[in-house]
Amino acid sequence: MSKLIVKPEQVPGPEGTLLTVTPESAGWEYVGFEVVRLLEGQTLARETGGLEVCLVLLSGKADVSTRHEQWKGIGQRMSVFEKTPPFSVYVPNEDQYSIRALTALEIAVCTAPGEGNHKARLIGPDQVGVEIRGYGNIERQVHNILPEQEPADSLLVVEVFTPNGHWSSYPPHKHDRDALPEESLLEETYYFRVQPEQGFAIQRVYTDDRSLDETLVVKDGQAVLVPKGYHPVSAPPGYDVYYLNVMAGPNRIWKFNNDSEHAWIMTKPNV
Questions:
Q1: Residue 175 class from Cβ within 10 Å (0-12 exposed, 13-18 middle, 19+ buried)?
Q2: Hey, is 198 helix, strand or coil?
Q3: Fewer CB in a 10 Å sphere around the end CB: N or C, the chain?
Q4: Beta-carbon contacts of residue 264 (< 8 Å; ≥ 6 apart)
């Protein structure tokens, strides 16, 4: 299996952890990512240390508190494939959070270096920007959970729904050079869910010089590391694909470049 694919554990760890990516395990500097699954009544409590955190309720309901704030009974969707925007909680570095599951709960723990510039806050569904991006079989639904226009120190968080037979993160684009204003350097994780769950997604990760050139078969519940290069995704016929993206780098701005060989695809044909 490719080193870019991170598989979930068969049985959750002591804190309910199913999948973990750290800067050390990924071989990069900024992005951390976890998926935690709790049963009703179970809790998770942690200090944030030097990291800011975005807790994304993928499915289920919970009480969430930080050192100075608390939110009761948040969460509404029971599956990501309901395609409604999620509840999320932003927690700054040098804080703490506690999560109590009110139902079966799957939560994404997205982390990156924090600088203490922002307070803990709830990001409700009405604060998530929803857009339809692309056209034809590159059309997909995007939920901007923590875009660059909203306050954070490092994190960018977005989720994407790719209908079966469609492509997303397309045309192929990259953000692996610290060369603003043309392009920003952002590490990225993709966390995949597939419906029906026996299906798969296809993701290609490649660079211009092809020093990295992999085509990945990604199963439900797996994550993909994108340290550099272009990274398009395909949802095979019959299988809808969801993914949650976490990005961070030296500058909190998303400036990308499309693969010049395929950029023409963004010119909608006259019909």
A1: buried
A2: coil
A3: C
A4: none
Residue 98: phi and psi, rounded to 5, are -135, 135
User: Residue 136 gets which letter from DSSP?
Assistant: G
Nearest to 245 by CA among 191, 193, 205, 201: 191
Closest CA relative to residue 254, chosen from 182, 189, 191, 203 = 182
Residue 263 carries which side chain, given as an amino acid letter?
A
Contact 231, 192 (CB under 8 A): no
Identify the residue whose tokens are 């809790």: 43
* Distance (Å) of CA 195 to CA 167, 242, 267: 15, 8, 30
Rounded CA-CA distance 15/97 in Å is 14
| C-alpha dihedral (44, 46, 52, 55), degrees to nearest 10 | 0
Residues 166-216: tens digit of each pLDDT: 999 999 999 999 999 999 999 999 999 999 999 999 999 999 999 999 999
